[in-house]
Every structure is written in C-alpha cells, then in structure tokens.
Design a protein that fits this description.
Blueprint (H helix, E strand, L loop, with lengths): L2 E4 L6 H16 L6 E5 L4 E4 L16 E3 L6 E4 L3 E7 L2 H4 L3 H19 L4 E3 L2 E6 L2 E11 L2 E9 L19 E2 L11 H11 L3
Helix pairs in contact: 3-4
Length: 199
C-alpha cells in the first residue's frame, strides 16, 4: 500500500527531483513505503533521455532541465496535475509495459468521470483526446522501482507547448481539460484520481 501526498503550492523542480530520487532509493533498499505525489511545478521544460536539441524551439523562454527519465521534451507548469509514482514494481510483480499501461488506463478512467473520452495511440506513450495529447508520461525505473510519472493538463497555459516539440511529435496537438470545455479544479481532479487509482 502506498502513501498519497498532495502539495498545495507549486514545488521547486530540482528540490522535488532530489527528494523523489531519495525516496525511490529508500524503497529499493526496503527502508521506505511506496509513495505517490500530486503536485504542480512553476513553468519549465524538461528534457528526457531521448530528447534532441532540435526539439527545443524557444531556448530562452523557460528554464530547461535535463533529467534521467525516459521520453523527450515536455512542459510543466501551473494548472497541470503532475503525478510522481515511487512504486516497487518487483513487489507488485509488474513489468514495465504493464505498469505504463496501468497508468494510462488510470488517466483514461479518471477523464471519463469528468466527461472526456480519452484513449491511447499505438506506438505513442501518453493519453490522447482525438489527435491531441492531454497527458504525457515519462518514467525512470531502476532495479524495479519507479520514479517520475505523468503530467495531466487540467488548465495550464497551453501556449508554452509551442516552445518545444512535445514528446518529439510534430503532427499532433496538445489539449487540456479546460480547453475541452470542462471546468474543474485541481482539487476535484485529485479526488477523482485518488478514487480511480489502480495501485
């Protein structure tokens, strides 16, 4: 069983990253219980291990952090619900692909409760509404323990996505819950995510 922590104010990115990595290491050593965090960050870009410099279109627009998670460039900022999952996949007997699909299905189920029909796309990670991505995800898994997680667009400033090629995908757009006509707070989204969580 995991502990769920929700942070009410935007969290500094590097400090959060350090705490997350420490937590994941303690779980690997069997010194800590699993945790899931719900939070926001100030506006910034992150570059995953597969990111290419050509995918950063506006280098001076926001701070850019190169990090160890899978994936490419993405945006984080206010109005986005970020979920960091520090879970022991070994103890849960979950493979990586099975784990990622569970997270995608979790978000699809939560969005359905809000009145949004979302889905996955073959060979593309994340959650989509038509041809627009509503939730990105990128994980780092070391010795069977996950860190990093998903970014669900609730009501972020979507214009910031124009400064990057999100997840390296040029031909698809980005959307959010508010942009799709659903007016819901982060706190209400959190309640739905907690209720529908498969872990």
């Amino acid at each position: 069983m995991f502990t769920l922590k929700t942070f009410s104010t935007p969290q500094d990115y590097l400090s959060t990253l350090s705490l997350m990595e420490e937590k994941a290491e303690n779980i690997r050593k069997n010194n800590a219980l699993e945790e899931i965090w719900f939070l926001e960050h100030p506006s910034l870009y992150t570059k995953g291990t597969s990111g290419r410099e050509s995918e950063l279109l506006a280098a001076n627009l926001l701070p850019v952090y190169e990090i160890g998670r899978g994936g490419r460039y993405t945006y984080h900022g206010p109005g986005q619900r970020i979920g960091y999952l520090m879970l022991d996949l070994r103890a849960r007997r979950l493979g990586v692909k099975e784990f990622i699909r569970m997270v995608e299905d979790w978000l699809i189920t939560a969005l359905k409760e809000i009145g949004i029909n979302a889905s996955v796309k073959e060979d593309k990670i994340g959650v989509w509404v038509g041809d627009a991505k509503i939730a990105a995800m990128g994980f780092r898994i070391i010795h069977g323990v996950s860190s990093h997680g998903f970014a669900l667009n609730v009501n972020p400033d979507l214009s910031y996505f124009k400064g990057i090629i999100p997840c390296g995908i040029k031909d698809f757009g980005v959307t959010g819950i508010k942009a799709l006509g659903k007016d819901i707070s982060l706190a209400e989204v959190d309640k739905i995510l907690e209720r529908t969580c498969p872990f």
